[in-house]
Amino acid sequence: MARLRRKISLLALLCCTWTINFLGPPVKRRENGGQSHLGAAGGVLAALQPVNQVHAVDVEGFSFLGKTSAEIFPVSNVSLLTWGLLIFLPSWEYLKPAALIAPVINAVLYVAAISFLLTHPTQEISADLLTLDGIVTTFRNPDGVLAGWLHYCVFDPLVGLGEVLDSQQNKVPHFLVVSPG
Questions:
Q1: Contacts of 27 (CB under 8 A, 6+ apart)
Q2: Per residue in 52-61, pLDDT tens?
Q3: Rounded to two decimals, what is the model's pTM?
Q4: Fewer CB atoms inside 10 A, N or C side of the chain?
């Protein structure tokens, strides 16, 4: 039992350390002698475009606990821990609670991001998520992309957990569940 507690503590420590280490400075790009903050996806998009085509927006961007979208984005990688557990430790006694850690962290961030988007609509961020045009407009903004990515990082590992648990209940060999294709 003490050995199991030590493993759980190590997993929690790894999760926290990994999350903290991935928090870095926001993606920045020089523009007309100044700096503009671009969100997580904005940095990739900006790298693909010439500098004169990137326009800074003078609106308040999403932040959570003082962190911007670019700083929050790496935290979503905590989902990889859930996938590691599902692939390599599917019969571990504490799989269910341990596999829920990452989706819960990402769910908190998702609720904060989507709440911000719905309460702070701009020309780049649409509060209309019921139409395709509204979603396209929202995904043109790095904060909107972050919210969409967090949504994926919450639900995809939960679906994977459901698949692993269902396969165990129906006695499907694990290699068939995790094999590609």
A1: 37, 38, 39, 40, 42, 43, 46, 70
A2: 333 444 457 8
A3: 0.66
A4: C
